[in-house]
Amino acid sequence: MCDVCKGSGFVMVEKDGTEYATPCQCQIGPFPILEKAGVPERLRSKTLGQFKAQNVLIENYLKRIRKWCETWPKVDRGLLIMGPTGTGKTHVSVGIMRELAEKGECGMVFKDSRGLMQEFRDTYQDGSRLTESVIMEDVTTCPLLVLDDLGAERLTEWTQATMEQILSARYNAGLPVIITTNWMDSELLPDGSEGFLVDRVGARVRSRLWEVCQRMGFLAPDYREQAVKA
User: Fold this and answer.
1) CA-CA to 32 of 20 to 30 Å: which in 8, 57, 109, 116?
2) Which residue(s) pair with 148 in the sheet?
3) What is the pLDDT of residue 222?
């Protein structure tokens, strides 16, 4: 739900002593682009300006991200944003999409990685309205693909092959991808007792990610947990 109009689509404004309703910002500007991209409604109002970096490391990454947005569409690589739950990775990825939408970039696609794998599986069912090729074309030809929560799905040969196909197709076409994941690389977090990114996506996909993305480690406490403690 939009934080401004609370889902009504309108806000009240006053002019010359008269109050009247006018369309909320969620009905104009970047919001329709984000809706078409598949960004969940509760996330569409997120901006990079709203994001509060919890430490200097993340602040420096945020500067690189802003530079990436300024360079668009002439970017040479995508972004791989890694970090524990609750460090703002999804917020930042949607904030990037909004920055680009405000520049008029249309056709972006936002997918939860686990949901995307389920979309592919559903095409194998009798009566499916979509085909695997249609979904694959959607995620391999859009100007920007944002894959949220990579590694949440169970690793199988099929999920690894499917993800590798998506990344390879986009790489060959010169199309960037932004990926968020709760799993870190061992180089950025050597003492990862719960496992690493390679354990969740496989060596081939991890290798491809290194090739196509700048890596960023958002290492900070869970902001949701901090809010509860406060």
Assistant:
1) 116
2) 112
3) 67
Write down how long the chain is: 230
Read off the amino acid at residue 223: Y
Instruction: Give tens-digit pLDDT for 35-47.
Output: 999 999 999 999 9
Question: Do 2 and 44 touch, CB atoms closer than 8 A?
Answer: yes
Using alpha carbons, list the distances in angstroms from residue 102 to 36, 41, 69, 99: 14, 17, 11, 5
Burial 184-220 (b: 16+ CB within 10 A, else e): bbeebbeeeeeebbbebbbeebbebbeebbbbbbbbb
Instruction: Report which residue type is found at 199.
Output: D
Residue 72 near residue 105 (C-beta atoms within 8 A): yes
Span 65-105, pLDDT tens digits: 999 999 999 999 999 999 989 899 999 999 999 999 988 88
Q: What is the pLDDT of residues 165-190, one digit of tens each?
A: 999 999 999 999 999 999 988 766 65
Q: How far apart are CA 181 and CA 114, in angstroms?
A: 11
**Could you tell me the pTM of the whole model?**
0.83
Domains of the chain in start order, with CATH, are: 1-45 (no CATH), 53-229 (3.40.50.300)
Residue by residue, DSSP assigns 44-100 as: TT--TTT---SSHHHHHHHHHHHHHHHHTTS-SSEEEEE--TTSSHHHHHHHHHHHH
